[in-house]
Each structure stands twice: as C-alpha cells, then as structure tokens.
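Practice set, problem 2.
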Amino acid sequence: VQLVESGGGLVQPGGSLRLSCAASGFAFSSYRMSWYRQAPGKGRELVVAITSVGGTTNYADSVKGRFTISRDNAKKTVYLQMNSLKPEDTAVYYCRADRSSTFTTYWGQGTQVTVSS
C-alpha cells in the first residue's frame, strides 16, 4: 500500500499550487480521501475530504473558497488545488485514505508547502 504526495514547494503569497496523491495497493475507488496539514509546532488538521463517489465534505473554514479537492478514480489519484495561498498555509500536507466498513486508514508521507515572499 502506498500514498505518494507530490507538488509541494515554495510559492509566493497569492500564488497557486496543485498537490497530487497517487495511490497503489488498495481499492482506491472505495475509499474516502482527505488532505490534512501540519504546520510547525501545531497539530495535524483536516483540510478537506472527498467521498468515494466524489462528494466533497469538511472544508476547513480557513481554506473555503481557495482550495478545491478532486479525485480521478481511474488514475487512483486525489488532487488539491490551492489558490490565493497565504503564509499561514505553510505546512506539511498529507493525504489520507479511509474505508469505514473495514476500519482501514492509510497515510502518505507528506509534502512540504511553504508560502513566503
């Protein structure tokens, strides 16, 4: 089982990034996918989740209107489009897969996003 995030990096305030999380080794289309983030010295927080059939839920108030989650079940990939980035968006971003029927959870290794001028 693997979840591999990519697309992080350094971006100026107001800029955009698109994160990807490629899954392998499990039935991706049956899993709810989420993006979490952890800023230095803080706990990990939920950014947004998307159901197995593409319904979005649980956008954090701090990212509403700026971030968009999507998924491509054929490519076994979930995306996070991040626009109008702010310095407070700086964090390690993780993707997570959940399947409640089997109490199964997988985490990726994370990708660093730094928003700074």
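Problem 2, part (b): a different protein.
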Amino acid sequence: QVQLVESGGGLAQPGGSLRLSCAASTFTFSSYTMNWYRQAPGKERELVATITSAGGSTYYADSVKGRFTVSRDNAKNTGYLQMNSLKPEDTGVYYCNLDWGAKSYWGQGTQVTVSS
C-alpha cells in the first residue's frame, strides 16, 4: 500500500503563492503518473494538473494555466505543485494522486485558503 502525505497548504492572500508537496512511500514512484486535484466547498473534485512518470509531459486545467506549475523529483519520491497569483476561487482541499495502470492512490488532502 502506497501512502501519500501532502504538505504546504495554508492561508494565502490573493496574488500570493504557496507550494504544495506530496511525499510518497514507494520505491516505484517514478513509474506513476502524478495528478493534483482540488475540491472546493459544495463542488465536485476537479483535476488541476498532471505530470507523467518521467516528468516529460504536463497538463493543466484552463483555470490554473500560467499560474500553477507541477513538478516532481523522482529521486526524492516527491511531487510538487507551485501555485502563484492565487485567487479566492483557488480555495479548496488539494489532493495528490498517483496512477499506474489499475493502481491508484490518494493523499489525505491539504487545505488551501485564499483570502484577504
């Protein structure tokens, strides 16, 4: 069983930045595609960003394109989501997810609140 631990959430002002981390307890981290999702109050969970196993390809939701950057360090079994120019609508619980074929693992989530 793979465990994912997210960190880095918190309170930020509009226009500010936060960096989320996702540490994985697996030596096969480099085999997994990593995704970041978020869920705002009263809304469905949505995909925010994706990075392929070797980091060669990324995907961003239109709402975060140009502001968020997804990355990973396979040597440290850790993924990151750099969030800049934060907006109040970025508020929500952010989850990291690892996918590899039929295997899919989720972190516990970290709260991000953007407010003045």
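Answer key, part (b): The chain has a mean pLDDT of 95. Residues 2 and 25 are 6 Å apart (CA to CA).
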